[in-house]
């Protein structure tokens, strides 16, 4: 799978993809991640990509021309299943959305800045608008990294059996059960006896019960199988 990201601050995206699971996914050739600085398509030699908003008001707006040229130029090289704009007024990201997007061949993500992008770009180029939560960040780079991470770790071969995404919270409409590691007793706090029993069926039942309990307490409205 390939994910292209158009960004005003490409430096912000270097860290998240340089370590751990996403780094391994790239090294294994399972995920190609390319960040494109929007200033490459700036309207003048000063690197301008934003301008004042019509009607007045504080905050700059990302201009049509650099974005249109960037999207058209990249779309000429490959066909994108979705052109995604990261914005706090988009559809809320959830596991189901990440699952669906992880099945696509090519995705293009636009990370916004300032007051956002000109509405005409949203109307004519963007096919999906995604928010990572009901709060406002200073730019769309971190949201783009969150989305790429949520998608990248689902690609076949990226996670091994032990870390399989099938057992993540949300995959079955339930939050994940508690986990423990050695020692079996720490400061008098004991690991639940059943996890030491060696009985896989009992352990599976216990984990399921704990998941149901936790989901009921923390996310009573969450969809369950
Ligand atoms: N840009 C700024 N805040 C955001 C959010 N919560 N989700 C997606 N993009 C954003």
Percent of residues in β-strands: 15-25%
**How many strands in all?**
9
Low-pLDDT segments, ≥5 res: none
Distance between termini?
Answer: 29 Å
Bound molecules: adenine
Q: Any idea what the shape is? A: elongated
CATH superfamily of the largest domain: SPOUT methyltransferase, trefoil knot domain
- Adjacency order of strands in the biggest sheet: 2-1-6-5-7
Oligomer: single chain
Looking at the overall shape, the CATH architecture of the largest domain is 3-Layer(aba) Sandwich
**Helicity, as a percent range:** 25-40%
How many distinct folded domains? 2
**Average pLDDT across residues?**
94
Element string (H = helix, E = strand): EHEEEHEHEHEHEEH
The profile of the biggest β sheet is: 5 strands, parallel
Round the Cα radius of gyration to an integer and report it. Answer: 21 Å
Structural class: alpha/beta
Looking at the structure, the CATH topology of the largest domain is Alpha/beta knot
Number of helices: 6
CATH C-level label of the largest domain: Alpha Beta
Describe, in short, the structure shown:
The protein is α/β, with parallel strands linked by helices and 225 residues long. Helices cover 28% and strands 19% of the residues. The chain has 2 domains: 2-152, 3-Layer(aba) Sandwich (Alpha/beta knot); 169-218, tRNA(m1g37)methyltransferase, domain 2 (Trp Operon Repressor, Chain A), CATH 1.10.1270.20.
